[in-house]
Amino acid sequence: MSKIVPVGVSARHIHLTQEHVETLFGQGYQLTEMKPLSQPGQFAANETVEVVGSKGTFPKVRILGPARPATQLEISQTDSFALGVKAPVRESGNIDGTPGITLKGPAGEVTIEEGVIVAARHIHFHTSDAEKWNIQDKQLLKVRFGGDRGVVFENVVARVSDSFALDMHIDTDEANAVLAKTGDTAEIID
Questions:
Q1: pLDDT tens-digit profile of 46-100?
Q2: Is residue 90 within 8 Å of 119, Cβ to Cβ?
């Protein structure tokens, strides 16, 4: 049985706490949905923030909602060089000891002490998909991309939850390396 998964290319984005939303956009502000994402309940917001590093700035980084328990900026390795920040490869949510950065919005700015990461490539599995393919949460997988620049990605983290929908997330550097785009598919081979 082949294990084919849809692919989503994840461009730089930020998750904000409600406190930071209000610091950047104003007291009581709520993010507004631009479009839903592949994961149930998640959305790309209409709002963006400016991200200011020691070497460079990105003027419009998309916020993903809803608000989270911790503010986290997810960038590619190339973005890391452009901003002048040494972002480690980490699973989403694992921000202890990561670098911080300055964020600017229309109502204010905030400097976070930690939270900048290059997201580890991963696959979201609904529990039923994981069970069907005998895949455990946090298992490291190998995934094959075909085509002219085909490659096998190793160390792809399985993330299993009843609240997830099947989708593999890679960043723009990884996607460019294999000529992949959102909506393509890949195959779990191990």
A1: 999 999 999 999 999 999 999 999 999 999 999 999 999 999 999 999 999 999 9
A2: yes
DSSP notation for 106-142: SS-EEEESS-EEEEPPEEEEEHHHHHHTT--TT-EEE
Alpha helices (runs of H) in 26-181, residue ranges in sequence order: 77-83, 127-132, 172-178
Tell me how far apart the alpha carbons of residues 98 and 82 are, in angstroms, rounded to a whole number: 17
> How far apart are alpha carbons 140 and 131 in whole angstroms?
15
Averaged pLDDT for residues 94-110: 98
Give yes or no for a contact between 104 and 95, defined as CB atoms under 8 angstroms apart.
Answer: no
CB 94 within 8 A of CB 87: no
pTM over 0.70: yes
Residue 185, H or E segment? strand 185-188
Cis, peptide link before residue 66, omega less than 30° from 0 = yes
Q: What ranges make up the beta strands (E) of 12-166?
A: 13-15, 33-36, 43-52, 57-65, 72-74, 89-90, 101-104, 109-112, 116-119, 122-126, 140-145, 151-161
